[in-house]
Amino acid sequence: MRTVLVIDDNPAVGTALDLLFGLREIRVITAQSPAEGLDTLAREDIGLVLQDMNFTADTTSGEEGVALFRAIRARHPDLPIILLTAWTHLDIAVDLAKAGAADYLAKPWDDQKLLASVENLLELGASTREVSRLHGQRRRAHRELEARYNLRGLVFGSEPLARVIELACHVARADVPVLITGPNGAGKEKIAEIVQANSAVKSGPFVTLNCGALPTELIEAELFGSEAGAYTGANKMREGKFEAADGGTLFLDEIGNLPPAGQMKLLRVLETGRFERLGSNRERQVKVRVISATNADLPAMIRDGRFREDLYYRLNTIQIDLPPLAERSDDVLPLARFFLQDNPLAAGKRLSEDAERALLAHAWPGNVRELRNTLQRAALLARGDSIGAADLGLPSAPANVATVVVGADELDRATIEAALDRAGGVLAQAASELGLSRQALYRRLERLGIKRD
Question: Where are the alpha helices (DSSP H) in 248-398?
Answer without folding.
Answer: 260-272, 298-303, 309-315, 332-341, 353-361, 367-381, 389-392
